[in-house]
# Entry
Amino acid sequence: MATNTKTLRMVFRNQAGKNVTISLDSPRSDVTPAEIEAAMDLVIARNIFTSSGGDLVSKQDIRIIDSTTDDLYDPA
Amino acid sequence: MAVNNVPGNSVLKLALHVGDSATGSPVLRSRSLNGIKPAAADQDLFDVATALAGLQQYPLNGITRVDNSALISA
# Structure
């Protein structure tokens, strides 16, 4: 049976210039890029996350990845 | 012997309500966000958790803050 999953991948840049990704499953189908950017701006403004390269300082990338999995074999 | 309590990174957990089971009890899916500063304010965690959950399809059922600390003998 084919199952379809979507993942929202928000990529930030930290103080060391490295990318830090926060992924969320099942984003809303009607979510807008502006909404996602606003949430990322809030993450940066509230500064609650830390990483091996320091605080998150800027937005780098936003992707929604749509993947389909075909499960071809299930033991009876 | 005295012991020092050294705070480590906290974890922010979002519980999402993905549906109901056959018996009517809620089915929750949990998403953990690691690397939370121990000094982060509760209000900030709440606001960020709410904003992130707002991007998702499923409604937010609860927010949990898990604080960690290491006990080190002084």
